[in-house]
Amino acid sequence: KSGLDPGGAWHAWGMACLKAGNLSSAREKFNRCLKPPMDLNQLNHGSRLVQDVIQYLESTVKPILIADDDYFATLRELEATLRTRSLSLEMMCEGKIQHNSYYQECLFYLHSYGTNLAIISFYMRHDCMREALLHLLNKESPSEVFIEGIFIPSYENGKLHMLENLLETIDPGLESWGVYLIAACKYLQRKNYYHILYELQQFMKDHVRAAMTCIRFFTHGAKSYTELGGKQAWLLKIKDHLKVYLQEVSRSSGRKKMALTFRKKMSATDVSRHINTVDLQMEVTKFLHRCESSGTSQMTGSSLPTLFGNNNMKMDVACKVMLEGKNIEEGFGIAFRVLQDFQLEATEVYSKVAKQLVKQQKYGEIRQLLKCVNESGVAAKNDGDNIILNCLNEFKNIPAEDLDNLIQDMDSDENKV
After folding, report:
1. Which ranges form a coiled coil (predicted)?
2. 376 lies in some domain
3. Are 188 and 198 within 8 A, CB to CB?
4. Which residue, of 95, 212, 238, 339, has the greatest Cβ tally within 10 A?
């Protein structure tokens, strides 16, 4: 007897009482060996001993329920789905838990010796999502407990809409859930679950972030502008989200400011700028899609530049637009707007284009480029010179006659100024 672990003995005795149906004696025995966790928000289900007790109690209940209740459960669940609310299901849940001594016993042990995650997971296992959410809120549990205990089980079991309905029912403004919803978005992003992320952002009415997700849908994985041409619906969705955001901001500015703490904010000027970028990207997409379809496209490369990237990528877009048309003039207008809108280094872009034209032996097109730059109305006096000077290394390959023509063009342009 002296060599026996006293905690283990009390646990064995408690389990014997449980199996005999003597619930009050079992409580007394377990009280001698079970202890509450130091941290109720730790990401586990409590000690192995507590889990054994819960497991046994739940397994005792199941044979009683399986006979008829499953049919009613299925009907009620269907009814709840049809109403797009989970109220009837929740009522069934409350009844099932309240009127069953074994489930009540589970809750006693969970509240006495379990973690918040263990309590929440118990509710979720028994379709009591509302209770799980209220427990999370009342205990102010961290977002990790929400992700692990409620969010992951919800989307894995196809109950994301039910979760969204309940979040809204408990707090129509969703402010109480802000920290949890943002954590869920970050989790989905890490996992690359962008379709679920987009669905959640729309539910949250987080239009700026939803627009950003649409940008990813538009750009991700595309290998050509022909592919991007088929994804232009995402550009329209970006605009829709940004326009709705602008409307909401202007509506709330007249009244007392609404607390939109967890939704991403953006100034009206920035939103307008982004809408302008989307419009310009649509134009670029249509133009380059047409070039690829007609076979005039010359440039190939692993990266597909869009206006949603950094300045270097935007400069690549301007180069691509000028080089892929039938001639320089065809795409110059769009390229010029890209340079102006994003205040890019124009001479650098024109020089890049000129070097590419030398490689392609399109010497007449260099003359056309200089003409377009000169006629753009914003070219400095020496822009043409700089473009030519930047290409000097390439010019050793230019036939003498073409080089003479270029120099003559430059001289005549200088005389005009």
Report:
1. none
2. yes
3. no
4. 238
Q: Which of 199, 165, 174, 171 is nearest to 185 (CA)?
A: 199
Contacts of residue 339, Cβ cutoff 8 Å, sequence gap at least 6: 318, 346, 349
Cβ proximity of 121 and 112 under 8 Å: no
Q: What DSSP string describes 27-82?
A: HHHHHTT----S-TTSSS---HHHHHHHHHHHHHHHHHHHTTHHHHHHHHHHHHHH
Q: Is residue 3 classed exposed, middle or buried when 0-12, 13-18 and 19+ CB atoms within 10 A define those classes?
A: exposed
pTM of the predicted structure, to 2 decimals: 0.82
Domains of the chain: total: 1
What is the spatial distance between Cα 54 and Cα 104, in angstroms, rounded to a whole number?
A: 11
Instruction: Measure Cα distances from 169 to 90, 110, 161, 176, 202 in Å.
Output: 13, 26, 12, 12, 17
pLDDT tens for residues 259-317? Answer: 557 899 999 999 999 999 999 999 999 999 999 988 766 555 557 999 999 999 999 99
- 232 lies in some domain: no
Residue 290 in 3-state DSSP? helix
- Any residues with CB less than 8 A from the CB of 42 and at least 6 apart, and which? 115, 117
Would you say residue 3 has pLDDT above 50? no
Q: Can you tell me the distance from the alpha carbon of 158 to that of 143, in angstroms, rounded to the nearest whole number? A: 21
Question: How buried is residue 68: exposed, middle or buried, by Cβ count under 10 Å (0-12/13-18/19+)?
Answer: exposed
**The residue type at 360:** Q
CA angle 270, 273, 275 (to 5 degrees): 115
Burial of 124 (0-12, 13-18, 19+ CB in 10 A): buried
Note the pLDDT tens digit of each residue in 209-241: 999 999 999 999 899 999 999 999 999 999 999
Residue 366 within any structural domain of the chain: yes
Residue 391 in tokens: 């290409």
Residue 67 belongs to a domain: no
**90 within 8 A of 124, measured Cβ to Cβ:** no
- Which residue type occupies 133? L
Chain centre distance of CA 271: 19
Residue-range definition of the domain harbouring residue 375:
296-409
